[in-house]
Amino acid sequence: MSPDPSSPVTSVTFTAFDFETTGLYPASDRIVEFGAVRFIGASVIESFERLANPGIPISQDAATVSGIADADVANAPPVGRVVPEFLSFLGDTVLLAHNAPFDLGFLRAALLGLGLAEVENPVVDTQALAMRAFPRRKSYGLQNLATELGLPPNRAHRALDDAMMCMRLFLRCVDELSFMGDLELREVLTETG
Fold it and tell me: Which comes out higher in pLDDT, residue 26 or 156?
């Protein structure tokens, strides 16, 4: 059951998530690493981190960015086995991703490939939220924002670490936008059409 849109953001259970992939295109590339963190307010409840065998080679560009090579996922379970675990972890929480259309595109492609229904969870895109909270920045990339805003550094471009950074960025945006009182969930949700 989705939370009431008028709920204060601080009382809502969110799951920040991120994927590392074989490349940039959901139609032809696949997920190789799932990372997610469930939280309420600033309290982490649980995390999820899994490598997955995509069944196709990881592009050199993607391997350079994430540090994940074909050998790292050779003995990992196939993506099709990890997706149901990931969906179970998400449950009915509000989803949070930086540049959400990218990660949601990969999730949709994986679900379609498995004949599963699309997720119906409400979504917050921290990139769009950061544009509201911190206008006129040179870059809205996750790592650039983290550096500019003085968020604690992480291992960039690993799924769980980027999910944790997404959570920290969300909390910072909420703090910045809460100058007139507590934000309601409806004020941070992204239209995913």
Answer: 26
Residue 24 half-sphere exposure, CB side, CA atoms within 13 Å?
4
What's the order of all strands across the beta sheet hosting 94-97?
43-51, 31-40, 13-21, 94-97, 123-125
157 is catalytic: yes
Terminal-to-terminal C-alpha distance of the chain = 20
Closest to 93 (Cα-Cα) out of 29, 146, 19, 39: 39
Rounded to two decimals, the pTM is: 0.94
Spell out a b/e string for 131-159, using b for 16 or more CB atoms within 10 Å of the CB, else e: eebbeeeeebebbebbeebebeebebbbb
Pairing of strands 31-40, 43-51: antiparallel
Structure confidence at residue 192 (pLDDT): 57
Q: Kindly name the residue from 30, 38, 50, 157 that is annotated as catalytic.
A: 157
Give the chain's domains with CATH numbers. Answer: 9-187 (3.30.420.10)
* DSSP classification of residue 139: -
Q: Look at the alpha carbons of 19, 20, 24, 28 in this order and tell me if their dihedral is positive or negative.
A: negative
